[in-house]
Amino acid sequence: MKITMIGSGYVGLVSGTCFADFGHDVVCVDKDKSKIDALLAGRIPIFEPGLDHLVASNVAAGRLKFTTDLAEGVRDADAVFIAVGTPSRRGDGHADLSYVYAAAEEIAQAITGFTVIVDKSTVPVGTGDEVERIIRAANPDADFAVVSNPEFLREGAAIDDFKRPDRIVIGGDDQRALEVMRQVYRPLYLNKSPIVEMSRRGAELTKYAANAFLAVKITFINEIADLCEKVGADVQDVARGIGLDNRIGSKFLHAGPGYGGSCFPKDTLALLKTSQDYDAPQRIVEAVVAVNDNRKRAMGRKVIHACGDDVRGKTIAVLGLTFKPNTDDMRDSPAIAVIQTLQDAGASIRAYDPEGMEQAKKVLENVTYCDGSYQTMEGADALVIVTEWDAFRALDLDRVKSLLSQPILIDLRNIYPREMVEKAGFTYSAIGR
Ligand code: UDX
């Protein structure tokens, strides 16, 4: 199959590379010349474990190409994936679809032969209808069909998620298009990944419903964690106790400082906007968004409380800045609100993250960025772990204690056993334990 990816950002680049690795002929297109130049020179503009090798081997095999020329990429393609960004629109939180629609206009002019246009970007219900209308208006003779095929990739595990998905969702009713999509995903049949075919609108909504449900699950366990702290229970016991019930499932029950990232905050907000437009309020999701927003600064207050309710003039060491490990992504990271709350209360911050420091410098000011975990702690009055990078899981607690001016450890990801930390002489606070 000849596949074209419009948009070589996170989703487009990972999906395009994995399709090439399955043996398809893939062209990744992007308007950003510097990004394409970097890719042509073998540099990967994002951090995703394993992606650099996969890109290099597929480029070498001649199956993966990069260009800024959309028309060249689209000509002769069997399937053209639209994988451009759909950020929250400034001011109102609706998904900004201008990049999707601009791509549709350009694709329309370049189509030759029957072409399947695939909405891969996360787009509100009805966007596929509009993409179809735009292409039809711009090129009435074009032979095409629009399908929805949302992605469910997690940053840091995207290649594995792509190659071994729990399911593939395809929305559309054009039989020729569905046949092309089955061929596109045929290599995954070997992994027994089910393909769920449904209406285009159903597929569009499935993506939002999936992310919103996961956000509910996280927020639910976070609130249960707060209750655990009050009643003297351990949220990890409760999560295990409920998670072993197959109807609930044990994943996404890790209590923490609140969800962040490029998807959950944006997609829950966009789902609320759609639900308002259609007069079908999603009150559970409304509550989740509000609770999660509030939680991030509450985590800053938790740190202040652990420091004796006063951090003015104190120095706090922060390990982990990205919204989760194995990414350099700082978008909506809880670390931002935690650090700003501490700064507002008069604390100085020393911080370290294995991959996120460049991005962090763009959003967090007046922070002393350090070169490693132990350097961050030098002379600090307390240590806070905000993101559970592996490198923070086995710190030498005696060394930590000797570096801190006070042995206070606040573990917002529950990665240490309380007994061990307390035995080492620390005052320890965690989440829901
Ligand atoms: C998510 C979805 O998982 C993915 O299917 C979708 O395509 C994009 O959004 P991602 O944002 O990369 O992926 O990260 P994910 O691993 O899902 O974590 C999201 C946030 O939830 C992180 O801030 C993480 O720390 C938090 N989280 C996750 C918890 O606090 N507890 C959990 O149990 C799981």
Which helices and strands appear, and what pairs or packs with what?
Layout: E1 2-6, H1 10-21, E2 25-29, H2 33-40, H3 51-60, E3 64-67, H4 70-74, E4 79-82, H5 98-110, E5 115-119, H6 127-138, E6 144-148, H7 158-163, E7 168-171, H8 175-185, E8 195-198, H9 200-231, H10 235-243, H11 264-277, H12 283-306, E9 315-319, H13 334-344, E10 348-352, H14 357-363, E11 367-369, H15 373-377, E12 382-385, H16 397-403, E13 408-411, H17 418-423, E14 427-429
Parallel strand pairs: 1-2, 1-4, 2-3, 4-5, 5-6, 7-8, 9-10, 9-12, 10-11, 12-13, 13-14
The chain binds uridine-5'-diphosphate-xylopyranose.
Uridine-5'-diphosphate-xylopyranose binds next to helix 9.
Number of helices: 17
Q: How far is the N terminus from the C terminus?
A: 53 Å
Under the CATH scheme, the architecture of the largest domain is 3-Layer(aba) Sandwich
Which ligands accompany this protein? uridine-5'-diphosphate-xylopyranose
Secondary-structure content class: alpha/beta
Please tell me how large the radius of gyration is: 23 Å
Any idea of the CATH class of the largest domain? Alpha Beta
- Any idea what the CATH superfamily of the largest domain is called? NAD(P)-binding Rossmann-like Domain
Poorly predicted spans? none
| Main sheet makeup | 6 strands, parallel
* Biggest sheet strand line-up: 3-2-1-4-5-6
CATH topology of the largest domain: Rossmann fold
Number of separate strands: 14
- Mean pLDDT score: 96
How many domains would you count in the coordinates?
2
Protein name: UDP-glucose 6-dehydrogenase
EC number: 1.1.1.22
GO molecular function: NAD binding; UDP-glucose 6-dehydrogenase activity
Catalytic activity: UDP-alpha-D-glucose + 2 NAD(+) + H2O = UDP-alpha-D-glucuronate + 2 NADH + 3 H(+)
